[in-house]
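Internal tracking record. Fields below are filled automatically when a chain is submitted to the structure queue. Please do not edit lines marked as system-generated. If the sequence contains nonstandard residues, flag them in the REMARKS field before resubmitting.
Queue: standard
Priority: normal
Entity type: single polypeptide chain
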Amino acid sequence: MNLFLSFLLNFLNTRKPSTCDLEELQKKVYFKGWRRPTKKWKEWVWRMQSKYQSLWRQAGIYEAIMGSTYEIKQHKKLALGFAERWSPETNTFIFPWSEATITLEDVMVCGGYSVLDS
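SYSTEM-GENERATED OUTPUT FOLLOWS
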């Protein structure tokens, strides 16, 4: 686990949710939409990449296709900790130091996606 993720988990665990314990909530929550790329999908992408890479880049979908082959590890504590700090009134996360939200730039940087035409 990287240092930043460890910091976030420690920070989010310093304050328990007011409604219930994160440990108990973690056992009850199931992320139905958490899909992993199948072996067949990965194989198909790797086979097609050499033939269609330039077309995918031209269409601006290369990064998204390649990103769809990566397995994103599920961290329930982290997801639930962030959900606890979400404010639907302001559409921001409320942290002790300030409010924050996820921007298009964050998605671009974290996902490695291009938001430009090229």
